[in-house]
Amino acid sequence: MSTLEGRNISVNFGEVKVLEDLALPIPDGQITVLVGSNGSGKTTLLRALARLLKPTKGVALLEGREIFKYSSKEVARRLGILPQSPVAPEGLTVRELVAQGRYPYQSWYQQWSREDEEQVVRALQITNMHDLAERPLDALSGGQRQRAWIAMTLVQNTPLLLLDEPTTYLDLAHQVEVLDLLDDLSHNEQRTIVMVLHDLNQACRYAHNLVVLHKGSIVASGHPSEVMSEELVKQAFGIECQIMLDPLTNTPLCLPMKRHLQAKQLA
Q1: Are 196 and 34 in contact (CB under 8 A)?
Q2: Would the pLDDT of 263 be above 60?
Q3: Would 203 disulfide with which of 9, 100, 197, 243, CB 3.0-4.6 Å?
Q4: Which UniProt keywords apply (predicted)?
Q5: What's the pLDDT score for residue 260?
Q6: Does the global pTM surpass 0.85?
């Protein structure tokens, strides 16, 4: 049994069906990446799995129990979540933001501890934010703020991490740095990671389990080398492409065609 699982999840916003009857067990200790075109339901599915959104039908199960039956603190000790475009109170420094990730471990009888401080320092170091720890968030670039939020997620030290577009605002070097970090956490610490990515090639490079959504349904799931195909990309993204092997990783590499090349193929 998977530690985290979506079972027959449907989500409606009014009359609009966003997800319909999705079943998704999340493999433990691996990286699962959700991909799909805009409006396919990626973020909605992630939010349902993270207890940020209650499904219209179906349930998200955490350790075999419906996730809404846990308290917020119980969930936060098991699952770290980085939502899309998070907002922090004005005037907060990087260190203060990251320290907020330790709130699930605080109580009236257990205040700030040495372990809390060690986890904050570690999260700042592995996200390369230590030198900016006292800087106000408002004074940071978009990419630096994103790394600060990632550090806050990591400081919870949970076995499960759910991240919605963690590479947003990051330049290419920091995108690779963050994805390599998540890959290390999965490989070395057996963390279970679920994330939404827009870059299909990055998804294929880092995912152990690739989940492709289209119009609220899962159209393919499995290892990228097993599920990625030109037909799948056309179905899910509406574009012609060529699939090759990445010469560095031997994972699928998607090369989208320009429109005039697509027209030539159809002629």
Answers
A1: yes
A2: no
A3: 197
A4: ATP-binding, Cell membrane, Ion transport, Iron, Iron transport, Membrane, Nucleotide-binding, Transport
A5: 54
A6: yes
